[in-house]
């Protein structure tokens, strides 16, 4: 049904708007940008901060434009002394209890409160500091919550509840004791929090941030006893430039490699290499499940926030998950076995760092079962009767986010824009276009279909692109004819969307064969470790950039990756073979909170 | 719903939820009833977990509501309740002295009015709480003892009421 447009005037400019929209968006249409701290398009409109006030002719009080709908003939004034004074007061009230450590704050460069205070000319708060805060919540591996920096805008609560349907955090208490917290104030680790970090990308201040490990990595780089190698997730090449001030969607693959080399990493490898490897394993697993009557639909397992989600909320469906580890973990396991053996580097002094668009990757790297390389070397030592150092190590030592890498690059005064384009190192650095699109929602599915089709049909795909699984709609479905079978696939991103597919499976109503789930909206390009405060435009730019990279690469199908083929030939044997299972596959278990 | 820690199976809670099923504001009524029926007159972690899983509501949401209303207790309450009104009218007529008298008679040392609104004596005999206003300002200062509002309270009257309480008169 088409809505009848109404006419309003904004700062004297007449425009026609949909009466269902928020006044703040209507003002934007008229070219007047109204500041706000709690409102975030598509995320939240709480009317809690009081910054978005505008003057409406005939109204007694100022109006909060984030929740007010336009009315025919409404005359709005978005600036002027009355509005400015109210906005300044609102910000002063927020600053009353806010720490003033902006100089050393992790969000100093991206803090909306700091920028707004500066813009409005707030030099000091007239109000006394009254609140006391508990120490920051550092209970999880991925995220830190600091109540003292929280302005109670509610964006994180909305992202957690509405985008992800996780409800780990909510407002508790009342009045001056109001806080954002988890059940019984027990910290995120004791809540259903899945570590996706969507809260951290919408937070206007530093109240929720990634647990920053960049200085640990910098310290390790300075340690001559260690060999530091690095892997970069697909989505980073489409967002690192943006994090360093380039336009959203800037594709910086070669410059990123150059920057990492200048930071001092011994080898620059690519998680896309292990994404191709993942497709070989996952594609084979899928074919086996179809041919042997295994559990279907099979669901992808690359996104650790998603793994945490299904382990917490749908443990009865764990058998649907592919047993494949994520590309990050496959890389770690291969690097510390195959690569270490091949190069003669002691795996105990080899450190694997990954650059991830994701806060949940930190926890994934820390899972106790993710030490396959250690176990492999121990078994080998036992078999050969040789001694092995007792020092335990994990497959991936540090998983740091796009934001942390950007910080390291800035600290090192490396000017990305002026760097030459450099190439990844071999033999864990080659990748295909199929691996690049892993960073987009629908990408893992498309990559898998490209390979599964060619394995089963034994001939080249007539068309490499699977357009129905692309784009940012919440749930995408397609039917793909492969070898006489109609393969029904579905793709969901954002866990509220994933729930729809999961509830169908639980009710026995799902007839899909293969489902891709990514925890974050947009997939990894919209990950919780990506540049903060994204909007749909930025996400689309990152999304397009990865499809451009797919076209740029000489090979576009995972089974055409020569280094992956060499890995099978020299080391692993067959996809889904014995050694693959030992190193590249994993198990899941119900998580009780 | 997430898989939660096993909460004590509570037929009482189930019955309460059944009673309010489908009514608007069901969670609020359920929390009220569960607290009323709890021997220690509070919402324990395990009863909130039961409510969450039986009603299919996130734990964070149950906690959000339970902490919003000062009527809900998240700590076990004493057998007796003493509520001192700290509204403006009662304050000007000496309610702070009444509060301090009650606290010291019950042996409660730590009570920061600006941080908490209730405290319970170590022996679990009585809980003392403050409220902003009973709406009985004309009769200020007022104190509520075990659910009964006592008006125009003086220290003398309060002491004799508390003595009576201790001797079991009120119990």
TrEMBL record, chain A:
Return the CDD domains for the record.
fer2
**Where is the 4Fe-4S His(Cys)3-ligated-type domain positioned along the sequence?**
82-121
Residue ranges annotated for the 2Fe-2S ferredoxin-type domain, each copy included: 4-82
Which is one GO molecular function term here? hydrogen dehydrogenase (NADP+) activity
Q: Which InterPro entries match?
A: 2Fe-2S_ferredoxin-like_sf (IPR036010), 2Fe-2S_ferredoxin-type (IPR001041), 4Fe4S_Fe-S-bd (IPR017896), 4Fe4S_Fe_S_CS (IPR017900), Cytosolic_Fe-S_CAF (IPR050340), Fe_hydrogenase (IPR009016), Fe_hydrogenase_lsu_C (IPR004108), Fe_hydrogenase_ssu (IPR003149)
- Pfam assignment, any one: Fer2_4
Domain 4Fe-4S ferredoxin-type: from-to ranges: 141-171, 184-213
Note whether Transmembrane occurs among the keywords: no
Keywords tagged on the record: 4Fe-4S, Iron, Iron-sulfur, Metal-binding, Oxidoreductase, Repeat
**E.C. number:** 1.12.1.3
Q: Which residues form a coiled coil?
A: none
* Full protein name: NADP-reducing hydrogenase subunit HndD
Q: What is the organism of origin for this protein? A: bioreactor metagenome
The protein's gene is named: hndD_2
From TrEMBL, chain B:
User: Needs which cofactor?
Assistant: [2Fe-2S] cluster
Sites where the protein binds [2Fe-2S] cluster: 85, 90, 133, 137
Cofactor stoichiometry and binding? Answer: Binds 1 [2Fe-2S] cluster.
Against InterPro entries, the record matches this protein to: NADP_DH_HndA-like, NuoE-like, NuoE_dom, NuoE_N, Thioredoxin-like_sf
Q: Which UniProt keywords apply?
A: 2Fe-2S, Iron, Iron-sulfur, Metal-binding, Ubiquinone
What GO molecular function terms would the record report?
2 iron, 2 sulfur cluster binding; metal ion binding; oxidoreductase activity
Taxonomic superkingdom: Bacteria
Q: Which family does it belong to?
A: Belongs to the complex I 24 kDa subunit family.
The protein's name in its UniProt record: NADH:ubiquinone oxidoreductase 24 kD subunit
